[in-house]
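Human:
Focus on the backbone:
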Amino acid sequence: MGAAFAALLALVACDKVTGPPLPGDAQQFSPPVVYSKWWQMTRECSGLSGSLESVSWFKTDQVQHDARSGEVIIGYFTTDGNKIVMSSGYILDGGAVRHEMLHALLRQPGHPRAQFLGSCAGTVDCQGPCISDGGAYPAPPETPMLLSADGLIMSVQVDPQNPGGGQNGDYFTITVFARNPTTNWASIIPLFPDVDTTRTFSFVITGANGGMGGGGILMDPSQRIFAPGETKRMVFDFNVGDAPFGNQLNPGSYIARGAFSTFWSTDLPFVVTR
């Protein structure tokens, strides 16, 4: 995510039940190869079924606004023609595209908390108005115990395992997992008291051909409170290339590590191929 993640904090994506006129410069486009993978990811986290082929995709350079809030939006779904309209600069932004895919699978208005901040949290982007629209976080059935971050079980996964070579259009994901191994509700606190308490998931990649890091900040109580045995995740999107600020990695050997708060996973080696 990196800079793209920060930029998204000021923007939202949404749904429109009725069919507004398409932007004047709207151009229909064929889903890139990676959309099949992103659609699969969204189906799996949501538990919903639907066909990617049934969705019509459009892009626009015009600034779009939510009809209800007036907020600037980077994409929207409408049931009229089963269309998704994306701002041109975000058609390959995984979290934003998967957000609209979830709308297309739900086929209902709003941002149900159980999906956007529950089952698909970390797989689809949900910030600002999306969080507000989901309603208040329901209090856990018991007071969460305080669990220091080193009490979490951390892991990281690269998908495909060795990306590149044309797989998924040379796009890949690194997903960081954090599991509460206890039978209690738990609220995560940093291992060290002087660490920023708003820090949630993050990643670091190192390699001979470069590296990068990034992460997210706490925006909703659900992000730091774990149900008994719950596993949370955060998906970070990358592609093969030489623009590190675009979350691109040159071919080569790398080490990935993922964290939640102050606790890190073990190293995971992977190779990016041409």
Q: What stands out?
A: Residues 34-46 form the longest helix (13 residues). The chain has five helices and 18 strands. Residues 1-11 have pLDDT under 50 and may be disordered.
